Structures are given as structure tokens and as C-alpha cells.
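Page 42, continued from yesterday. The earlier attempt failed because a stray header line got pasted into the input along with the sequence. Redoing it now with the clean sequence only.
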Amino acid sequence: MRSAHMFKAAVAVAAWSLVVPTAADASTITCVGTTTLGPPASYTSSGGGGALVERLEITGVHDLCLADGTVVSAAFTGTLLQVTHPDGTGHVVVNETLSVAGGTLEGNVRARFSPTSFDATVHAYGGTGTLKGMSGRGTTIPTGPNTFLSEVVYQYR
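This time it went through. C-alpha cells are written below.
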């Protein structure tokens, strides 16, 4: 049975690109906003050592802040792996690729959760094409069953 954290974690993956840019300096922008996750493309689960291991192929859309402050809509695809222990604690690892016209950006989300908490770190790297030289770091929190609110500081080189 898929846990509530599984879907929230999948959304967290997408949430690292956001809608409200603020310039910290010429090569850094902080983005804050919401991401929406679509239905999982596939889902598998297995058990081992008392833990539930779940894997999802995920897709979704979110806004992405570019170096000039422009906000564009990005599509993403990726894989989510979640391990949930019998006491309700666990961790999630998500690897994804964001796509916009003329470029891509890789992302990684690592989260730990318990029945009362969710702590996620977001990393963006490996921009190509129009996103070349872009990287970022931030956090994300669930705001609904398929949405997350994130804050990411992007650097442009």
C-alpha cells in the first residue's frame, strides 16, 4: 500500500523550481513557488527486512526561474524511490530531468520523513542548452496531495 508520504515526496521532487524570483546578485536568483505533480507513470513495491520499498516513475510541471528573472513552465520526468519502515519513518530519493524549450536541468531530492515531519533538500545541476551553467540548492515542503512549496537559490555561470 502506497503511503501518503510517497505522493508528497514525488511532488517535492518537482517543487524545486519556483515562480517568484528575487535577485541576490547578478548571478544568483532565489525562487519560491508551487509545483504540481501528475499521476505516476508506473508504480512498483516490495518488502524486505520489515520495510516497504516503493518506486514511481513521475511526471509533472512547474515554473522555473531563469537568470534574467523570466519565469518559464518546465515539464519534468523522473524516478522516485521511497523506503518506509514499520514505525512510519523513512527516506526518499528522487532523480529527475527538467525540460524547457532548448534546454534541460537535472535534479535530485533527498528527504527524510516521520509521521510528524518532512525534511527535504533539493539540488539542481547539469544544465544544457538554454539552461547551461545553471545549478541550485534549496528546500521543499508538501502543501497538498500533489503540490509542494519550495525555495531554491539558483546560480548561473
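Notes: The longest helix spans residues 4-14.
Reminder to self: strip header lines before submitting.
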